[in-house]
Write a structure and sequence with these properties.
Length: 150
């Protein structure tokens, strides 16, 4: 079993309605293949965590890499795991909205609200994404660029 984490950017702006339609198909596919995952979307940028059988997860990642709707695909982590962190979640789709009080988004709070526990590298990568790392779009969803590296 492996855990693979990647980021990418949508080739074109993606509406909430379109994403919700796609998520249903993605969830069905993941369930049929024994894949558990979390898909975060912020400003048309994505972070996905995939867990499952090595050959199946690698095949899905290669399929994503060939998808013209994704660009700037970046493999952030690929590691063997003994225990999945996302068991029983074929696809948890999260499109967080910045809180009105201006407080930063929290990976731990999002996970807690979804009913799973983050730890280690997964929590660090997810929090880094929420903080702006690996983003390729300006907040209005236009003009691809990297907002922050490092």
């Amino acid at each position: 079993m492996i855990r693979l984490i990647y980021s990418s950017a949508a080739q074109h702006p993606v509406s909430a309605g379109l994403m919700h339609a796609r998520v249903g198909r993605f969830r069905d596919y993941n369930h049929s293949q024994g894949i558990a995952s979390v898909l975060l979307m912020l400003n048309d940028d994505f972070l996905q965590i995939l867990e499952g059988p090595e050959d199946v997860v690698d095949a899905l990642y290669q399929r994503i890499a060939r998808d013209p709707q994704h660009h700037q695909l970046t493999l952030l982590s690929r590691e063997e795991i003994d225990h999945p962190m996302l068991a029983d979640h074929p696809l948890e789709y999260i499109a967080p909205i910045q809180p009105a009080d201006g407080k930063p988004l929290s990976a731990a709070a999002i996970a807690r609200d979804a009913g799973w526990t983050l730890h280690g590298k997964v929590q660090q990568v997810m929090q880094s994404f929420l903080d702006g790392k690996w983003h390729h779009h300006l907040p209005n969803g236009m003009n691809p660029q990297v907002l922050r590296r490092g």
